[in-house]
Amino acid sequence: MRRVGAEEQVSMTVDELEIIRPESESDEFSSSSERVDLFAWNNGMIRVDEGNTEHDAIKKSFLSGMGAIGKDTDVVAIHKNSHSTLTGQARFESFRIFSQAVGKKCGGDANINYAWYGASRGEIYDIISHGFSRLERPKAGELYGFGVYLSSAKFSIDCALSSAEDENGLRHVMLCRVILGNMETVCAGSQQFHPCSKEYDSGVDDVSAPRRYIIWSAYMNSHILPSYIISFRAPLKGVPRRIQANSVKPTSPWMNFHTLLSVLSKVLPPHKMTQISKYHSDFHRKKITRQQLVKRLRQIAGDELLTRVIKLYRTKVRPPVWGVGLHSEAVFRG
């Protein structure tokens, strides 16, 4: 399958430095011991208290990805998967093992990202309790092969449109951790149902700016780990099944990558700048994805320095009319 060319110009935002860190899954769970009320199952789900940093971060990311509808969306509850049941522990361990295996195959980076999945309350119940068990045509948008469809972290609107109201007028979506590995572009209308070669691990609608992830059936219960359930109300009736990308506007300061590189060269030692320049070059040569480039940049420069530099720069430069803002993955523009 073809790969989409990397854009010539790259930018990143502050929001993508403020994501929920994947390693937090192994930390202690929410201090609240309250069992699920909206999902009253004995399946290891616990409620995340409002005002909790974790709750606020997820809510902010979800509402931002809802675009113009975000201001009229009410997040009623957020529940966390504690993976405390026998099945939950097994799935958590399976995800860990496969992430290591894919990482080893991909040069040390399994390319794990957060993604949204929307469905009915009953389907989410089945997935949390038993895992993914069937493949269906996407409930919103075009067909990109046959697999489990998830929405990029910045486009929660897409999964919201795939959700269904329950008897209380609530909709429910899952925030999942997903092993993407090496991604291949799957064209609209494709009948593909597995990777085109052993080189690839997942499919995307656009490898340069993924909005939709496709996890093939063979990997759906090893490469997807449901982490949270968000219950909400939103005025989705009459909303187009596919919101244009530019309806979700940036909410945080951004900075052109070349400008960022110039500023960092004044404060970072030469050997670190050499590393960053190499990864930037690898991105333009399509050797690594945008997410991998930003991940490397964060590892080398550190979030604190990057945040300070971007915020300081944006206080001096008026933001553009349009740019892409992300909360859990890289931001690149041409």
Outline the secondary-structure elements.
Blueprint: E1 11-13, E2 45-47, H1 53-64, E3 74-81, H2 86-105, E4 112-119, H3 121-130, E5 148-152, H4 156-160, E6 171-179, E7 183-185, E8 202-204, E9 212-215, E10 224-233, E11 254-256, H5 257-264, H6 270-284, H7 290-301, H8 303-314
Parallel strand pairs: 7-8
Antiparallel strand pairs: 1-11, 2-3, 3-10, 4-5, 4-6, 5-9, 6-10, 8-9
Helix pairs in contact: 6-7
Order of SSEs, N→C?
EEHEHEHEHEEEEEEHHHH
Oligomer: single chain
Instruction: List low-confidence stretches.
Output: 1-10, 21-36, 243-251, 317-334
Strand arrangement within the widest β-sheet reads: 2-3-10-6-4-5-9-8-7
**Percentage of residues in helical conformation:** 25-40%
Report the major sheet.
Answer: 9 strands, mixed
Distance between the termini: 22 Å
Sum up the overall morphology in one term: globular
Count of DSSP strands: 11
| CATH class descriptor name of the largest domain | Alpha Beta
Number of helices: 8
Could you tell me the CATH topology label of the largest domain: Phosphoenolpyruvate Carboxykinase, domain 3
Do you know the CATH architecture of the largest domain? Alpha-Beta Complex
Strand portion, in percent?
A: 15-25%
Mean pLDDT: 78
User: Structural class per helix/strand content?
Assistant: alpha+beta
Radius of gyration over C-alpha positions, nearest whole angstrom: 19 Å
Number of domains: 2
